[in-house]
Each structure stands twice: as structure tokens, then as C-alpha cells.
Amino acid sequence: MIVVNELRKQFGQLVAAEDVSFTAKAGQIFGLLGPNGAGKSTTINCIAGLLTPTSGTVSVKGHDVVSDPLGARRTLGVVPQELALYEDLSARENLRFWGGAYGLRGQQLEERVNTVLSQIGLQDRAGDKPENYSGGMKRRLNFGCGIVHQPDVLLLDEPTVGVDPQSRERLLERVRDQVARGACVLYTTHYMEEAEALCDQLVIMDHGKIIASGTMDELREMMGERDVLRVSGRFDGQAVRKAFDGMAGVEVLQVDADVVQLSAETATRRLPELLGALAESGADIQETTLARPNLESLFLLLTGKALRE
Amino acid sequence: MKSGALHCAGKELRVRLRDRWALLMWLLVPLTIGGMITALSDGGQPQPTAQLLVVDEDDSLISGFLISALGQTGDAELIQAESVSRQEGQERIEAGDASALLIVPEGFGDAVLNEQPSVLQLITNPAQQILPSIVEEFLSVLTDAVFYLHRVFGNELKIITAQIDALAPGESEVFADPMIAQLGVAINNAAETLVEYLDPMALELAAAEDEAEEASGLTFALVFFPGIIFIGMLFAAQGLSDSFWKERESGTLRRTLVSPLSLTEIFLGKLLSGAGLLFLLSAAMTTIGFVYHGLSPASWLPAVLWLTLSGLVLYGLMSLVQLIAPTRKSASLITSILIFPLMMIGGAFFPFEALPDWLKTIGIWVPNGYLLERLKAYLFYDGGINALATSLPYALAMAGLLWMLCAWRLKAFAGRAE
Ligand SMILES: Nc1ncnc2c1ncn2[C@@H]1O[C@H](COP(=O)(O)OP(=O)(O)O)[C@@H](O)[C@H]1O
Ligand SMILES: [Mg+2]
What is the CA radius of gyration of chain B? Predict the structure, then answer.
């Protein structure tokens, strides 16, 4: 449904996306995970036709976004990262306008508007203007405006930023609905829990480049049969690195003044050894947790920095 | 394409109609100004004064009466008469220095007394349009008055004239004014005893005066009326033009760009909805003005259509400035400030009739000034519908050019939303 091939986008000297290639299929949630500034919005805007790629190609359902922009736009639904609503129009009128923008009219439009209103839980406030809404309600409406026309391909750019947990859950449910009816959803986020819980396929980006991609299982495999040990307390960075330097099967993911993360094979059995080495480096250990690897630790392994900074 | 543009226009209208305060403002500004000007002129505040040069070659009691009466137009001081020599008068009227030149020929007084025909010569300044017509109307009333005067007081006049003629030439000037005062007393005395004569005369005079007002047609407030509508149009155009930045800042412009709607449809939507609103606005203001001033309903539709077109020219101008400005703040600041010079020079605030000629010349080169001047030519002066028809191509060209420039700028403007 979405085919991105060697996409590159440059703003002057700044390379915002480089060598980005992936394919997102129908009936799938395809995730773009990465910290702020990784190039997620740049990539999604190239797909939406808002930005023209510096090089590379993007096609949506067979329509090249540069040579056949209208064909591509007709199949797309876009929920932008920033709210994009008419503050002077009610929720219902906003939905009507965006549905109409995709050619829906009359009875069909009204039915879709009513369905979406109940899906996003705004049927009781349908006549109110968004300026009187809470942040979460505005986000839901922003999302609703992108799905009135039931697009084959839905682009969602960080739709849950600034949303309370309840609204977020509801939104994620609605995203799953879209996939259930066969849509292809491209979902960007910097919340790794969200990506883990939602996405069938994932691309992890940093500094405009893809640093890992695959299904959740494939990505977990990249970590090997490793566990992640997280220790908090007070540490001397250099001493810690030195202590584990050359220790087989152990990798230092992160060293801060107050937290250290290690990945190790069969960490459960080697716990005394690992903690002993830490203590020897002069660390003051307060708390330890042992966990299965997740995207956070994968990101740490690949970039040496935390996803959220 | 058409359906998309209409869809956008419908949305624009809905947004606009929701903004009741802005709509009310666009109507209230001109209404308030119009109301104030009407109140001022009813209160006898200063009005434009016609400068009348008088050459009295007759130098008789009758001509003296006529001339001093010309200076007596009540509180309004519509006419300021100044006595000059024939040569000076002709020079000054040619230089455009006065509204009109009146020449009272030698033998005028005798002719009136003896019921002989006599001709008063009035030369008007072609550059001024209303003021000379005020002089003209007033003068025609006065000559009637002189005629009636003679009818009623013929004998008294003959006696007084004989007395004056008996005086030496030098004394004649000295005594001219007291003589007129004496004439006034005589008239008063006679009036008290000749009620049956006076009544029909007063009636006739009153009728003549009414007629005069209708013929010149232009009251002080009426001169202002079309300009005031233009003030409303300027404010409306400025208010409408804000929508490009509003859409860009709220993110809806970007969002529309990723939908199948084209930039052209967004653009046409704004143009169409603007035209609709400007039509409603000018229809409302024109109706109020027409009813108040009792103008002919036949000229209502041409006036409203012309005003709508004028509004579109101004809306295009304001939009272009908005689309060129680097930020929303500067866009809104520049367009709000721009209203004032356009209003002042373009004859909307100070009517052309009250502007010095050089300013008026500049004023009709300002888009709104030109459009307003044409409308006034149609409504008040002898232009007729031709005044609009012949200038329609220019007005359309202005609107077309401005909106084409807007369309061209909009591409870059939307691109900047990257
Ligand atoms: N219009 C632009 N002009 C210049 N630089 C931009 C523009 N848009 C994004 N960038 C830069 O490109 C990089 C990637 O930004 P973005 O794609 O928005 O990241 P993300 O969405 O992953 O947070 C950032 O360094 C950002 O500053
Ligand atoms: Mg982003």
C-alpha cells in the first residue's frame, strides 16, 4: 500500500531523512518509532505530498506521490501532528467539511459523520466548537477528521501527544478499528510502549536514518537471548565501563550518574557476578530490576542513548 | 472542481456568519459615521461654502438688495459673496478660484422696476460640481423674490430709488446699506397691512425654495453617503483578508493541501464567499442609505453591484498585502493601517467635493477613490448608467489583476507552510 524507496529529504544543509525504504501493507499497523527530530514527520509529510522528496520515490496504492499527487491524495487520510481544525466550526461541521473535501455528499456524508462522532465519543458535544474542548477531545476530533472518508491508507503523526491515558486508549482502539476494516495505517510515535502494543511492523529511526526494522518479534531477536538489567544508584561512568570491558556476553547499554543498564545472556544466573563487578567499580547500588528486552533497550543497544531524553 | 470550490465557499460562509461581532462591526462602523454626519449637518455645523464673485455693473438699489440677499443664506452660510470688478472676477473664475461669478448688468434695477426683461449672467466653475449648483438654485429663488418684491412694493421701491438717484454719486455708496435697511422697514410695515398679498407670496417663495432643494438634490449627508459605504467595505475587505493567515496558523491550510481539494478550489471558495458577503453588506448599507435619503429605487441594483465589485477589488488588495507580509501580525497591522490613507485620500472620509483639487486628483487614482468617484457620478451627477458602464472594464481589470496576483502569491504562501 505504501512503498517508500530510498527516500531522502534535505532542508538546505540539514538532511532530515536519508535512505529511508520500507513497505507498509494493507490490514497492518506500520510503526515509525524514533526520538524527536528523528525524521518521522519529514517521512510522513513526503508520503502525504506536503513535502517533495529531494530524491527517492514514494507511492501510495500504486500512485506516485510526485507524478500523480491527486490519485495518491484520494486514497489517503492524514491526521497531522499539529491540530488542524476550524475553531469557529462545531465538531460536526468540521467532520462534514473534511468528509466533503474527499467528495462525500448528502446522506452518505451525514451517516459517516454520525458514525465517526460516536466512534470518537463526541456525539454529545457535536454542536460545540473545538475551542471549548479539552486537549484530548481536540485530538480525538483531529483524528476523526482524517477517517470520515474511510481512507485505504491512513497516516497518523503522533496522534496521542498530550492526550490523557483514557483518551489515548480510546484512540488506539479506533486505530485498530481502521486496520480491522482493511486499511493500511502508518503510525509515528516516540512512545515505545505504544509502538510495542500497537504495531505489526516497525521501523526505528534516528537522525533521519532507519537503524532497525522488522516485526516486533524480529526486533526482539536482534537483542538475542538477552535480558536487561537495570540498576539505579550512584555510579562512576568510566569505572563502570572499565569493569565490564572484556567480560564475555555482557553489553553496557547505558551509563549515567544515577542509572546503569546492561544486557547479558542468562543474566539471572550471572546476577551475583554482575552486581559484584559493579560494586567493585565503587558504585552505590540502590535498586535493581531484571527485564525482558524491549524496544527501549534495543534503541539503547543501537544508539547508546535513551529514546526519551 | 466546481463542487469543491462551492464546498469551500460554504465552509467560509459558515465561518464568517458565525463571527457575528465582525459582521456587526462592518455594518456599525459606516452606520455610526453616517449617523454622526447626519446629526452634525442637521445641527447646522460648518458646511462647504460656495465662493461667489459678484460684479455689480448696475450699482442700483435693486442690485444691492439682490447681492446682500445672496450673502444671507441663514446659519448655513452656503454662499459667501464677494464684490469684484468684472476683470478680476473673470480672471479668478478662470483660475478656478471661486464657485461662480455673477454679473449684474447695467440697467438691471431699472429693468425690474419697469418690468422690462433683463438677464443676469452666471458663470460657474466647471471643476466644482455641487457648490455652483447651490449658487444657481439660490439665485433663481432670489430673482423670483425680486420679481415679487416689485409686484408688491413697486411704489415704495420707486420712491426710494428716486431718493437715492437724487443723491450725489459718492453718497450713493455711503447710503446704500442704510437705504436697504430702510427698505426692510418699509417692507415690514407694508407686510403688516398687506397680509392678503404677503400670504400667497410667502407660499410661492416657500414652494420655490423646496423645489430648489430637490433640484440640487445634494444635502450635506448625502454627499457623504457613498463614501461611508466604502468605509464599511474597506473594513470588511480587511477582515475577510485575514483568513489566509488564519488557515495557515490553524494548520487547516496544510490539511486541505493533503486532501483532494486543490489550492484553486480553496482560493475560489474564498473569492466566492467574499463576493456573497460583500454583496449582502453593500445591499444592506445601500438600502438604509437609499431609504433615508429617498433615492430612486431604480439605481439600487446598479449601485449594489458596483459596490460589490468595489468590495472585491479592496478584498483583493488587502489579500495581496496579507499574502506578501512575512508574519500574521505584520499582515494584520499593515492592512489595518492601510485602511486609513485609502479612506482619507479615496474620498471615503472627506468627500471629494470638500477636497482641494490636487488631492482629489490623487484620490481618484486610488482604487477605491476611482470606484467611488464613478459611483457618485452615477448617483448624483449627470453621468447616468454610462458612468458605471464605461468604467466597468477598468474595475473588472483591477479586480482581475489583484486576484491573479493573489493566486500567484498563494502558491508560495502555502508552500511556506512546509
Ligand atoms: N521545514 C523544515 N525546515 C528545516 N528543517 C526542518 C523542517 N522540518 C523539519 N526539519 C528538521 O528536520 C529534522 C527532522 O524533523 P522531523 O521530521 O519533524 O522529526 P520528528 O517528526 O521525528 O520529530 C529536525 O532536525 C527538524 O529540525
Ligand atoms: Mg514529528
Answer: 29
Domains of chain A: 2-219 (3.40.50.300), 224-292 (3.30.70.1150)
Q: Compute and round to an integer the Cα radius of gyration of chain A.
A: 23
Amino acid at B396: L
> Residue A105: how many CB atoms within 10 A of its CB?
12
Q: Is B200 on the interface with A (CB under 8 A)?
A: no
* Residue A17 alpha carbon, nearest atom of ligand 1: 14
A window 27-66, beta carbon within 8 A of B: 48-51
For residue B200, CA distances in Å to B127, B189, B222 come to: 39, 17, 32
Residues 6 or more apart from B95 whose CB is under 8 A from it?
A: none
Mean pLDDT (chain A) is: 90
CA-based nearest distance A176→chain B, Å: 23
pLDDT at A302: 80
User: Measured in angstroms, how far is the CA atom of residue A51 from the centroid of ligand 2?
Assistant: 13
pLDDT digits (tens, 9 = 90+) for A52-88: 999 999 999 999 999 999 999 999 999 998 899 999 9
Chain segment B120-143, per-residue pLDDT in tens: 777 777 666 666 666 666 666 666
Closest CA to A42 of A63, A62, A24, A16: A16
The CA A149 to ligand 1 mean position distance, Å, reads: 29
Exposure of B7 in the CB half-sphere (CA atoms within 13 A): 26
Structure-block grid coordinates of residue A169: 486508549
Residue of B nearest to A94 (CA): B11
Contacts of B7 in chain A (CB under 8 A): 97, 100-101
CA separation for the pair A290, A231 (Å, rounded): 9
Contact yes or no for A50 and B418 at CB 8 A: yes
| CA B33, B315, B363, B396 torsion-angle sign | negative
* Residues A194, A172 contacting (CB under 8 angstroms): yes
- Taking an 8 Å cut-off on Cβ atoms, the answer to whether A85 and B250 are in contact is yes
What pLDDT score does B155 carry? 62
Integer Cα distance of A18 and A211 in angstroms: 11
Instruction: Say what the ipTM of the complex is.
Output: 0.84
